[in-house]
Design a protein that fits this description.
6 strands; globular; disordered N terminus; 191 residues; 4-stranded antiparallel β-sheet
Length: 191
C-alpha cells in the first residue's frame, strides 16, 4: 500500500510540474504581457479624461464608460481622495465613472503620468499572475460661477491580473494570456 501511495505521489508531482511548466511565462511573453498591461492602463487614463471632461456629451461618456469597464476584472473598485480630508472612498468601477461624470465643475482636466511597474508579476496558487502598476494623477476642477478651483495629485496603485484564457477561432481552441485591471488604490494625495 505504501509503495502504491509513493508511486501515485510521484506521478501526481510529475504531472503537476508538467502543467506548471506549460503555464510559466517566457521572458519574451512576459515583455508582451507587460506592454499590454501598460497599454490598458494608458487606455484607462484616456477614458477617464473623456468621461471627466465637461465637453463630452452624455451619450459619448456612457459609451466610453462601457469600454472602460471592459478593462476591469469583476468587482474591481477605484479609490477617491481629496486634500480636504484624510478619508479614501472606494467605489465599484461603474459608480466611480458616474460620479466622475457628475462632478460639479465647469471644467475638469485629469492627467495621468509617470506610469510604471512597481512589482513584477508573481504567480498565484490559482495559476494567475498578479502585479502592480503605479500612476500619478493630476486632477484640476474649475467652477466659473463660484470661482472655485481645486487641484490635487494622487499616487495610485493599480492591481494587474494576468491569466490564461481560451477562445474558439475557426473551430480551433486557442489559448492566450489576457490582462485585466483590478482595484485602483490611493496611496497618497497632495496639493
Amino acid at each position: 500500500m505504501k509503495n502504491k501511495f509513493i508511486l501515485f505521489l510521484g506521478l501526481f508531482l510529475s504531472a503537476s510540474l508538467a502543467v506548471m511548466a506549460q503555464d510559466n511565462i517566457s521572458p519574451a511573453r512576459k515583455q508582451a504581457i507587460d506592454s499590454l498591461a501598460l497599454e490598458k492602463v494608458k487606455d484607462l487614463s484616456k477614458y477617464i479624461a473623456i468621461i471627466g471632461s465637461k465637453e463630452t456629451q452624455f451619450s459619448e461618456a456612457n459609451r466610453v464608460m462601457d469600454r472602460a469597464e471592459e478593462l476591469f476584472a469583476p468587482g474591481a473598485e477605484m479609490g477617491v481622495s481629496s486634500i480636504n480630508t484624510k478619508e479614501i472612498a472606494y467605489y465599484k468601477v461603474r459608480r466611480y465613472f458616474e460620479r466622475l461624470m457628475a462632478l460639479n465643475y465647469d471644467r475638469v482636466n485629469i492627467t495621468w503620468y509617470d506610469i510604471q511597474y512597481i512589482s513584477d508579476l508573481e504567480r498565484q496558487p490559482d495559476g494567475r499572475y498578479v502585479g502592480v502598476i503605479t500612476i500619478y494623477q493630476r486632477f484640476e476642477g474649475t467652477s466659473i460661477e463660484t470661482g472655485m478651483n481645486y487641484r490635487d495629485t494622487t499616487k495610485k496603485d493599480i492591481t494587474i491580473y494576468v491569466e490564461k484564457k481560451q477562445t474558439q477561432i475557426a473551430g480551433r481552441t486557442i489559448e492566450f494570456w489576457d490582462v485585466m485591471l483590478g482595484d485602483v488604490r490611493v496611496t497618497e494625495t497632495s496639493a
